[in-house]
């Protein structure tokens, strides 16, 4: 088999006249461009509703999708909006202005909803997705409580799952609106995904191992987590100091109660993985190592320096998942300083791990076991990273890449990665385009702007870089034959 090459290209970073990438024409254009350039893997970030700091890794739900990615033009085609209504100037911004975009898009979604007539397809979608009503209720209650985290809601809302102390008839329209958004999210996403399949492109989705505290998952499944009586976490997730952060990373996600999960045959995880496989072909799990051992930080600690490693029932979990989902295909984010047992767990189930050039270029690897990357959404751009290297490292790279004749060193690195004996090589779009450090997508441990805000203004410049990438792929394939 020929090596598969691909792009890591978040939906939010696609060009759009509405300020954020969406499921509209430019997403279809990207698929065409990738297919024509012999790229067969499109990796994206989680599509679940963005949580605190607009982070895809603090989702409000592990089942729902974020309506911010909906294409307004698709609503025009559905006859629910007209072209004059969707004209926007927000697309002129060179970054994703989340709050402004949500306000503008929500106004138009409400218009579309007011014109929507329920269809049989809509009714079947609601009936076939048992999670949707709980999510809609969560969103409505969150709006009623000034968008606060559920642990800070008024009593009757916070404890509604157990007390059900008031009728919901007053919220009927708002609940229906949230279900309407989910219906169109999956309608648009499934159409885009099916088009990718027609063009022989598979989609790798991303899933954080933890869920956000402020999520319907925790609100409705409190026994699955280590929480206090008031719903606040007893312990939070993160990692100790490493090459990303000298103080470690205190993510704030609640820790799973693995004993309870095991007693319930991991039902929470089975449903979560099944939902992910309805959205993606392959699921990359962020922070895979926590299935072996996880860093347990007391909630009172302000950094991740103080904590303890605790073993998780990884084998029991994956045995159960394979029983329920025989076609399970996971990509393990296995970066960082790991103990050998993490790799043993990964290899036992034949999951692929990750080789990231910025971390591993001077190390030996078994490339049959990994997918190759120049960097991830958490890394500096290649160009930005190169500017941080000392002379000794630069000299080592110069010798490593001496056979490649591309003008720019970041391009020689991409070509080198394509020549590595791995079955898949995936390049982040900002690396392919030689973007400066100012285009870094995310800095771990930091919250809010400018994280998650990088976007392309058009495909004009992208096309030229994609052509160069295609030439590298063809050269690598010729050399490998």
Taking pLDDT < 50 over at least 5 consecutive residues as the criterion, the unreliable ranges are none
N-C termini distance:
10 Å
Shape: globular
The percent range for strand residues is 5-15%
Summed up, the helix count is: 19
Radius of gyration: 23 Å
Return the CATH architecture of the domain at 4-123 and 202-220 and 352-382 and 391-480: Alpha-Beta Barrel
What does this structure look like?
This protein is α/β, with parallel strands linked by helices. It has a domain at about 5-125 and about 200-220 and about 350-380 and about 390-480: Glycosidases (TIM Barrel, Alpha-Beta Barrel). It is about 40% helix and about 10% strand. It has helices at about 25-35, 70-75, 100-115, 120-130, 130-145, 155-160, 160-165, 170-200, 215-220, 260-265, 265-280, 315-325, 340-350, 355-360, 380-385, 390-400, 410-420, 430, 460-480, and strands spanning about 5-10, 40-45, 200-210, 235-240, 250-255, 280-285, 295-300, 310, 330, 355, 370-375, 425-430. The strands form two sheets. An eight-stranded parallel beta sheet has the order 9-6-3-2-1-12-11-10. Strands 5-4-7-8 form a four-stranded antiparallel beta sheet, with no helix packed on it. α14 links the parallel β10 (about 355) and β11 (about 370-375). The model has no long low-confidence stretch (mean pLDDT about 95).
